[in-house]
Design brief:
heterotrimer, A mainly alpha (about 300), B mainly alpha (about 325), C alpha/beta (about 400), A: about 300 residues, mainly alpha, two-stranded antiparallel ribbon, 13 helices, globular, C: about 400 residues, alpha/beta, Rossmann fold, 2 domains, 12 helices, 15 strands, about 35% helix, cell membrane (chain B), Ribose ABC transporter permease (chain B), membrane (chain B), transmembrane transporter activity (chain B), transmembrane (chain B)
Chain lengths: ~300, ~325, ~400
């Protein structure tokens, strides 16, 4: 927990800075709108955390999000009745993609960087091969509701985010979480003490796939069908997790901090926008902050692991 | 693919190259390459085309030279246990730096080339220092540097800029018989890297650090310096690739690196060539094979006019399948 | 662009011929390097919030396009893809040869809906002509370097005509110049900085698009109204011209442009930006867009904020037209018609037949207005389908374009 403290300080500072520039920001509607916007990335980061803490990478989530939205649009094709079955299917597909990623990585011993890079190519190729290049069909208003609508004053996305966060925290406090971290810290030691490392890592990948499915439902709901919906999300999610002080290579960091990392990233975007930093310089500022944050986080942590797992 | 491995003892096309390098992981990729060429020749012949033609051989070399040079650099950092995600933006930056300086005419070519190499080396130095001194994971460090370069590009350029003197275009377009100059440049880079890795002290240290940094450190290797050196080499390779691209495009372009996907594709080529992503195992010969494999695959796709989405699926499957086979060999070996 | 570059390249092409020949074989295209300098206009009117004028702005091209908007095109009225505006016909007898033909196409990419719709229309157009024996198309996947190699490869395939849709204007110029002496070249969509192709096919252009939308807003939004301009990304010539023409119109008007933002063509980002602006300014009175792909997301931002949707422009994509019709928007849809993908095939056959073609083939570029909206609504077509595909009578419609009849 000590390691993850800095991210909360940074997040708080950013939120204060935003509030200074925009006094309405802390009003409930504006703040909820911010949380709603951040929800998909936070959920993706939570999912990515389970993979990273177990010592792996998941580069496929961005294209998985795109694929899910495009699949949903084609299958639903505007009909209300198809909404719920398709949502169940999307969740199943997310889990399946994770299962494949996990099995190829753990059973065939392909480095997860490559497995998920391959999955990224396969998913984005296959889904557009199927739809003939660009999205077809349309999402139903019912499908859109989760990403767009709200329950009273609280957006559905925020509620889903709260449930996701609670589930993630619970999972990490359970035995599962401890064995996952143990597998990431030192898989041989974990295996010797009876942890089924391949299985536990595969479950980590499945959680990441599941989070991509949920994020896809929220993003598709928020803004509708688009072929670019998931673009670059994998790098953003990994960045968020790392910002939260989670160590690439596994074994260290908390899921709450990973989610805080995602909020920080989103707050940073909002702040840059508010202060009128042009779109052009945005990536540069982001680059400096990521390197800086991770470097600061590493200062108290001398035992370095090999660069890439 | 599994079948190919079982008939491994049959003499394969790339045998001279691997004996030269002595790196065993390179063997299957050349075997796969030979089989792919055979398959491509068959498929294209069935389609009514001609696969093994002068134009096609020249085309395959032209298509693979830029990626090949980047991948050679990427091999060096990966062998050292690191990786570099900043090469794509660095290539774009270099193409612009080169084209803007060379706009001065023939006399400006040398300053242009020198500046590009210096800029590249500096970026490599920064990458290396962030990784070793600030202890930032290579993935994040080079991603962060990539973002910083991107911001610089977005801020300063809003489209192609600069130009190069006509004499400089010879690098991109000339050929000696069936061998384009660009391929010779690639060969020179690859041979230098091979020499560095297998015949110099730095090379041995790169393998040692990538194999086990802790053991290397205990046996007296200054691991930090080795990683920094590897990154400088990788970035300089990206600089050379940028120069080659400028000689093809005749102008600098802020998107040429990312459009080409040189970051992830170079990593894919390296691991296809049998170099372990974790470092310490593999070599340049394999990478050359990996790049050629991707280029021949591309060429077959082109001949058969395969849909670009189908190409992605095939590339993904080939990548994962190849890595699974390597992993299997390593366990059974 | 074309007018300015022609002057530039008359000399350039000559200079290229004197290019020193190396001792070994050279595939170097015969051209000198393109000059990147385009006459940048002076800084624009300050205080309008529109910023500096784009360095891509060329007054002469702007004037030419403004004139073409009202000009009467020649050619069959029901086939706009065969029409042309102010054609300066050139003789093609030199290229005349008997069929059957082998046509080749170097495509920049099929990475967005606009290109996909166009690409399908082009393939269907090919299937209409029996005299085309072979049609070879290579997809450069958005990579300049690959397209250069593709163009070189196509030159060895015995093509009777080579159609090129360049990925980038400046960087593809050497490759196109290299192909010109060997085969009749037809360029469309984006241009190149040489006039060596036999014909260059394009709709009127970006200035006309941007001006159409901006003038609509100037007419509909009361003076002093706050305008939000949404652009995809900077630095793309065909998009820069759209914005620079809009800037000219806004600078002359009483409207206040409160923001010019880049959306990356991402619907979620667009929606977030618009939501932020509504929050910050309370009310936005008009939205200008340089492309329609995310127009629906912008409209939804107003709906979700519980505000009436102000005057807005989109493009001829079905999702926007549907929204426009259902939500009764005050809107206009300038177009960059996908039917231009049919024209290169027609042009190639004309050239090989020795018929005259325009040197610069300016296709009409209609805007969809309220009164014409109903005729462009195509239920059953995918949301990202472009209504001006000119493909309704082509074989395989609507299934090949992803629709249902």
């Amino acid at each position: 927990m000590k390691r993850s403290l800095p991210i909360f300080v940074v997040l708080a500072a950013l939120l204060v800075a935003i509030a200074v520039a925009n006094p309405y920001f802390l009003d409930p509607p504006a703040f909820l709108a911010f949380v709603k916007r951040a929800a998909p990335l936070v959920i993706l980061a939570a999912g990515q955390y389970f993979v990273i803490v177990s010592g792996e990478f998941d580069l496929s989530v961005g294209s998985l999000v795109t694929a899910e939205v495009v699949i949903a649009a084609r299958l639903i094709d505007g009909t209300a009745a198809a909404t719920w079955p398709v949502m169940v299917l999307l969740i199943a597909l997310g889990l399946l993609a994770g299962l494949v990623n996990g099995s190829v990585t753990t059973l065939l011993r392909v480095p997860s960087f490559i497995t998920t890079l391959g999955m990224m190519l396969i998913l984005s190729g296959a889904v557009f091969l199927w739809t003939g290049g660009s999205p077809r069909g349309a999402l139903s208003p019912q499908f859109r509701e989760l990403g767009r609508g709200s329950l009273g004053p609280v957006p559905w996305s925020v509620l889903i985010l709260v449930v996701t966060a609670a589930a993630a925290i619970w999972a990490m406090r359970a035995d599962f979480g401890r064995t996952l971290v143990a597998a990431g810290d030192n898989d041989r030691a974990a295996a010797l003490s009876g942890v089924r490392v391949p299985r536990i890592r595969t479950i980590g990948f499945m959680i990441s796939g599941l989070s991509a499915a949920v994020a896809a439902i929220l993003l598709g709901g928020f803004a509708g069908v688009s072929a670019q919906v998931g673009q670059g999300l994998e790098f953003q999610a990994i960045t968020a997790v790392v910002l939260g002080g989670v160590v690439l290579g596994g074994g260290r960091g908390s899921v709450v901090a990973a989610m805080a990392g995602a909020f920080t990233l989103e707050a940073l975007f909002t702040l840059l926008n508010l202060y009128g930093i042009s779109g052009a310089l945005e990536p540069a500022v982001q680059g400096f902050i990521i390197i800086g944050a991770v470097a600061l986080g590493a200062v108290n942590f001398r035992r370095r692991r090999p660069a890439v797992a | 693919m599994t079948e190919q491995i079982k008939v491994r003892r049959v003499p394969a096309g790339g045998s001279i190259l691997q004996r030269l390098s002595g790196d065993r992981p390179a063997r299957p990729v050349y075997l796969a390459l030979a089989l792919l060429i055979l398959l491509g020749w068959l498929l294209v012949a069935l389609d009514g085309g001609q696969f093994v033609s002068l134009e096609n051989i020249v085309g395959i070399q032209q298509r693979s030279a830029a990626l090949g040079i980047v991948a050679v650099g990427q091999t060096v950092v990966i062998l050292a246990g690191s990786l570099d995600l900043s090469v794509a933006y660095l290539i774009s930056l270099n193409s612009l730096v080169a084209a803007e300086i060379m706009a001065g005419g023939d006399g400006a070519v040398l300053p242009g080339v020198t500046t590009v190499l210096v800029v590249s080396a500096l970026v490599g130095l920064v990458n290396g220092l962030i990784i070793t001194r600030l202890r930032v994971h290579a993935f994040i460090a080079t991603l962060g540097v990539a973002l910083i370069i991107r911001g610089l590009l977005d801020q300063r350029y809003d489209g192609p800029a600069g130009s190069v003197p006509a004499s400089f275009l010879h690098i991109g377009y000339d050929r000696i018989g069936p061998v384009p100059v660009s391929a010779l440049l690639w060969a020179a880079v690859a041979v230098s890297a091979w020499f560095l890795l297998s015949r110099t002290r730095l090379g041995y240290r790169i393998y040692a650090v990538g194999g086990d940094a802790e053991v290397a450190r205990l046996s007296g290797v200054r691991t930090g310096r080795v990683v920094v050196a590897a990154h400088v080499i990788c970035s300089v390779c990206a600089g050379i690739a940028g120069l080659l691209l400028v000689s093809r495009l005749a102008a600098g372009a802020p998107t040429v690196g990312t459009d080409g996907g040189y970051d992830l594709e170079s990593i894919a080529a390296v691991v296809l060539g049998g170099t372990a992503l974790a470092g310490g195992r593999g070599g340049v010969a394999g990478t050359v094979g990996g790049v050629l494999l991707l280029a021949v695959l591309d060429s077959v796709f082109n001949q058969l006019e395969v849909d670009s989405f189908a190409k992605d699926v095939v590339r993904g499957v080939v990548l994962v399948a190849a890595l699974a086979i390597y992993a299997r060999r390593r366990r059974t070996a | 662009m074309q007018i300015a570059s022609r002057r530039l390249f008359a000399g350039a092409a000559l200079a290229g011929l004197v290019l020193a020949v190396a001792a070994c074989t050279s595939d170097t295209p015969t051209t000198s390097a393109p000059s990147g300098s385009t006459p940048a206009a002076e800084a624009g009117a300050s205080g309008k919030g529109t910023g500096e004028q784009s360095k891509f702005f060329v007054q002469a091209d702007y004037d030419a396009q403004m004139a073409m908007r009202t000009a009467q095109p020649t050619g069959p009225v029901d086939k706009p893809w065969e029409q042309s505006i102010d054609p300066e016909l050139i003789d093609t007898a030199a290229y005349k040869k008997p069929g059957p033909y082998h046509l080749c196409f170097s495509n920049a990419a099929v990475n967005n809906a606009w290109r996909q719709v166009g690409w399908k229309s082009m393939q269907a157009e090919v299937s209409l002509h029996k005299e085309i024996k072979t049609f070879t198309a290579l997809d450069a996947e958005g990579k300049d370097d690959k397209q250069i190699s593709d163009i070189a490869e196509l030159q060895t395939k015995g093509c009777d005509a080579l159609i090129i849709s360049p990925n980038t204007t400046a960087t593809l110029t050497p490759a196109v110049s290299g192909a010109c002496p060997k085969v009749p070249v037809i360029v469309f969509d984006r241009g190149v900085q040489t006039d060596c192709p036999v014909t260059f096919i394009k709709p009127i252009g970006g200035y006309a698009f941007g001006a159409e939308a901006a003038e609509f807003l100037v007419g509909k939004v009361p003076p002093g109204g706050k305008i939000l301009a949404l652009r995809i990304l900077p630095g793309v010539d065909v998009l820069e011209t759209r914005w620079s023409a809009a800037k000219v119109a806004f600078d002359k008007s009483e409207l206040k442009v409160v923001g010019v933002e880049f959306t990356d063509g991402d619907a979620a980002k667009t929606k977030s930006i618009v939501t932020d602006y509504i929050q910050r300014y309370g009310k936005i009175d008009g939205v200008w867009m340089d492309a329609g792909a995310t127009a629906v997301a912008a409209v939804e931002a107003f709906e979700d904020a519980g505000q009436p949707v102000p005057p807005i422009n989109g493009e001829d994509q079905e999702d926007f037209l549907k929204k426009w019709s259902e939500a009764k928007l005050t809107a206009i849809a300038p177009t960059y018609p996908t039917y231009q993908w049919r024209t290169p095939i027609i042009a190639a056959l004309k050239i090989l037949n020795g018929e005259q073609v325009p040197k610069v083939w300016n296709l009409p570029q209609p805007a969809i207005t309220q009164d014409k909206l109903a005729s462009y609504l195509r239920p059953g077509m995918p949301p990202l389908h472009y209504a001006l595909c000119g493909c309704e009578n082509l074989p395989g419609y609507p299934e090949k374009w992803g629709g249902t009849s």
